[in-house]
Design goal:
The protein is of the alpha/beta class and about 290 residues long. Helix content is about 20%, strand content about 25%. It has a five-stranded mixed beta sheet. A five-stranded mixed beta sheet has the order 10-11-17-12-13, with helices on one face. Strand 5 (about 50) and strand 6 form a beta hairpin. Helix 1 (about 70-80) crosses helix 5 and helix 5 (about 220-235) crosses helix 6 (about 255-265). The longest helix is centred in the last third of the chain and has 14 residues, at about 220-235.
């Protein structure tokens, strides 16, 4: 076993830039660090998280940022390994790689085992809604349920569950690739986003809800599993694992960040975290 994963290389989905990233074992809380030019980093928390449509972003100490962290954070949440890890990136975005979290899960399994971190307890029932998303928290045995409704894209609504096991995450959630719709592409490109299209790592649907055969062919329930993957990765922005029952409907990165901050401020969790006032991204892009 080693203290550092190999550099994983690929193209950033939104920046279109070639980037490299790895996971290192170092004492301290979970951090994200940029190593291109002058090194800078940030502890992963709701304080360092920045709301942005379509992905999650961490703001570093020198003002630079790192995007698409949710795909690398999801296996950390699934393994309950947060402390003593640093995500190093040599650019503004974690590479897309396979479109999901399988390669990051493989990399995490290859480094020296660390003790799982004590989870943050949900201590009281809590529920709220924001811009079409609902988040419900309850004390109890761990389970996440995410309901997604893409009827406006002619895809069925569905609820996908995760029982908290590494095996279930690896087999059913980590392989789910990022996806998109023709109807969103023009707005993304107009905003200088989605510049790193990899047809092997993305599932794309037309206006009729049919997959584009020039991109990756979706496996059953893949879109809904990827929404669950993104949500698990976004939960990591709290900075430590969580235990309890978590239910979300129609989550999006900015909306999840807003509601997690509200839940912390309302005392839904057993530990008090420093939570910033919420700024929710307001622009023409769809927050998925």
């Amino acid at each position: 076993m080693t203290n550092v994963t190999p550099w994983l290389s690929g193209i950033g989905l939104h920046s279109g830039l070639a980037t490299h990233a790895r996971i290192c074992i170092e004492d301290g809380p979970l951090r994200v660090r940029r190593v291109d030019g002058a090194r800078s980093e940030a502890i992963v928390s709701l304080t360092s998280a920045r709301p942005i449509p379509r992905t999650s972003r961490i703001a570093l100490s020198d003002g630079r940022t790192v995007e698409m962290v949710e795909h690398i954070f999801a296996p950390l949440m699934a393994s309950r390994r947060f402390r003593n890890l640093v995500v190093e990136v040599d650019g503004p975005e974690v590479p897309l790689l396979d479109g999901g979290a399988s390669q990051w899960s493989d990399a995490l399994e290859a480094i020296r085992a660390l003790e799982p971190q004590e989870p943050l307890q949900i201590v009281k029932p809590w529920c709220d809604e924001f811009e079409g998303m609902m988040l419900r928290l309850e004390p109890g045995e761990f389970q996440i349920a995410v309901t997604t409704d893409f009827r406006h894209h002619k895809l069925d609504a569905r609820t996908t569950f995760w029982d908290g096991s590494w095996k279930s995450f690896r087999e059913h959630i980590a392989p789910a690739r990022a996806f998109g719709f023709y109807s969103e592409a023009r707005a993304l490109w107009g905003a200088g986003r989605a510049l790193g299209i990899d047809r092997r790592s993305l599932v794309v649907f037309d206006e009729e809800g049919k997959p584009d055969p020039t991109f990756a062919a979706p496996f059953p329930n893949e879109v809904h599993s990827h929404k669950l993957l993104d949500f698990i990765g976004d939960l990591a922005l709290i900075g430590q694992p969580i235990t309890g029952r978590i239910e979300a409907s129609n989550p999006g990165h900015s909306r999840t960040l807003h509601l997690l901050g509200a839940a912390l401020r309302d005392g839904a969790f057993g530990a008090v975290a420093r939570v910033p006032p919420q700024e929710v991204a307001k622009d023409h892009l769809v927050d998925r």
